[in-house]
Amino acid sequence: MKDFKNAIIECVPNFSEGTNMEIIKQITNEIESVKGVELLDVDPGKATNRTVVTFVGNPDAVIDAAFLAIKKASELIDMRNHKGEHPRMGGTDVCPLIPISGISMEETVEFANRLAKRVGEELNIPVYLYEYAAKADYRRNLADIRSGEYEGFPAKITKADWVPDYGNPIFNEKSGATAIGARDFLIAYNVNLNTTSTRRANAVAFDIREKGRQKKDEKGKIVKDAEGNGVWEPGILKSVKAIGWFIEEYGIAQISINLTNMHVTPLHKVFDTAAERAAARGMRATGSELVGLVPLEAILEAGKYFLRKQQRSVGISEAEIIKIAVKSLGLDELGPFDPQKKIIEYRMKDTSVKKLVNMTVASFAEETASESPAPGGGSIAAYCGALGAALATMVANLSSHKKGWDSRWEEFSIHAEKGQSLMRELLELVDEDTNAFNHIMTAFSLPKANDEEKAARKLAIEAATIYAIQVPFKSMKHSYESFELIKAMVEKGNPNSVSDAGVGALCARAAVKGCYLNIKINAQYLAQHPEVMPILEQAEQMNSHCDVLEQEIWNMVLGKMK
Taking the model in full, what pTM does it have? Predict the structure, then answer.
């Protein structure tokens, strides 16, 4: 079963209360009571009598927090007394889940079903699944589900086509009904123009948005179809909604954009297309602005896009890629862009946890040399592997910039990107190996006063030990995999850096051998375990063959240096 502890989803429930801040606070308190989630935004509206709440976290924690919030809303909000301008059908009107990282849309749908089942069964609230979670096409659109609103649901819920997906087909007078679904992340994004004209900003917005503009004839009159409806000319970009406006605070016009699916139309394509259409109309896109938070993926893809346009390697550090994205999109034109505050994954980082990889080189060495048994050989082996991959990546990046090799930039960029991926995986395993050791220590500290406790302790020790075998095995595989990249850099890379690639091979060999030792010592009493046996078999093969690979690379390096 997949582990979702490092995955992140966003949840944006809409509650039918926008005036009583005490009620809203009680609901958000429930969300904040759950470990593993972070409340990002609370946006109440008086006219709509509705509050939009945004929080993120690992899927299990988000589901728990959403359930508690919906439960509290069912206790505090009475739909029989609700009035507001926004369409609504329940106290918790809608609760979408949005995959951010480490989880697919299909997996997010499974979590939406889990939440919907709990709400329907435990809270007796009828639940309808929508968007990607919908079980029928006619239920995908939220507006169709909500049609008739709260007042129309007593009759609607009795119809065969509108039996809820979860919960009884009985109208809940106090709480109404709730829509729970899975949808794509919506990016609120503004492109800045060097004009004060809303009309001209609108012209660009109509050019790029999917809906486009109403078609007009030669005399400027709106063209209508046979039924008398206006005919629309579609715009350039799919999954894009846009309109022009003037921002008095900045003294400029902007194109205000809602990007509803960044995988259909990525952020950088929106900016470039808006810039092209602005230029065609005598204007210039001077920069842009992100409203709210953005997934890391969107910024990294933008940075890589602009690096490729410059024919530069994309296998550079994450921080450098983000810097390129910010400068290319002009995200810092109207104010500082702080990745730690604007990127969801960075906002979610637990800075209270001390990581080995965040230490200085000297501190890491001193921590290793201390009386504590961790970090030990497993963490050091993973770090050796990370250094080997880092050296190969350096050679690839230097090769992509080598004078006279301009036509080969993409070839080396691919190698560098692979190296960055291996390096990041191995750096994560530096800390994970120490965590695995701590799991074993925790298991050994469990009570053993009676037979039941002894049996539970034995199982815990076995599970922790297997994990302590699996972690260095991952490090071993990644380090072994880096030989291919290192060899390619010796053969094809910048000849001035061939010795660096050679040192990389030595690091990779040390990593593979070090991981092998950790696997062997942890597997002493579990060698015949069905989960351990295939690991030992593969580890033996990699251990014996890494000597051959390292020697081959060693000879190639010396041959290049003659």
Answer: 0.85
Q: What share of the chain is helix, strand, coil (3-state, %, to 5)?
A: 55, 15, 30
The answer to whether 236 and 273 are in contact (CB under 8 A) is yes
Which one from 86, 144, 332, 529 is the annotated catalytic residue? 86
Question: Looking at the domain assignment, is residue 288 inside a domain?
Answer: yes
> Do residues 290 and 422 share a domain?
no
- Is residue 86 flagged as an active site residue? yes
Q: Are residues 281 and 373 in the same domain?
A: no
Residue 82 a catalytic site member: no
Q: How far apart are CA 416 and CA 550, in angstroms?
A: 20
Instruction: Output b/e per residue, 121-141; b: 16+ Cβ within 10 A.
Output: eebebbbbbbbbbbeeeebbe
Catalytic residue among 64, 184, 207, 433: 433
Total Cβ atoms within 10 A of residue 434: 22
Q: Beta strands 285-291 and 187-193: pairing type?
A: antiparallel
Q: Do both 247 and 315 map to the same domain?
A: yes
Report the CATH number that the domain containing residue 108 is assigned in CATH.
Answer: 3.30.990.10
Cα–Cα–Cα angle for 82, 86, 92, rounded to 5 degrees? 60
3 state SS of 209: coil
The pLDDT tens digits for 136-178 are 999 998 889 999 999 999 999 999 999 999 999 999 999 999 9
| pLDDT of res. 467 | 95
Over the stretch 394-411, which tens digit does the pLDDT of each residue have?
Answer: 999 999 989 999 999 999
On whether both 45 and 145 belong to a single domain, the answer is yes
Spatial CA neighbour of 165 closest among 177, 173, 149, 175: 177
Residues 6 or more apart whose Cβ sits within 8 Å of residue 504: 387, 388, 389, 390, 391, 392, 395, 482, 486, 489
Do 519 and 472 touch, CB atoms closer than 8 A?
Answer: yes
Two tokens, residue 223: 């063209």
543: in domain: yes
Which domain CATH number covers 399? 1.20.120.680
Q: What is the domain range of residue 547?
A: 356-560
Query: Cα(208)–Cα(313) distance, rounded to whole angstroms?
Result: 30
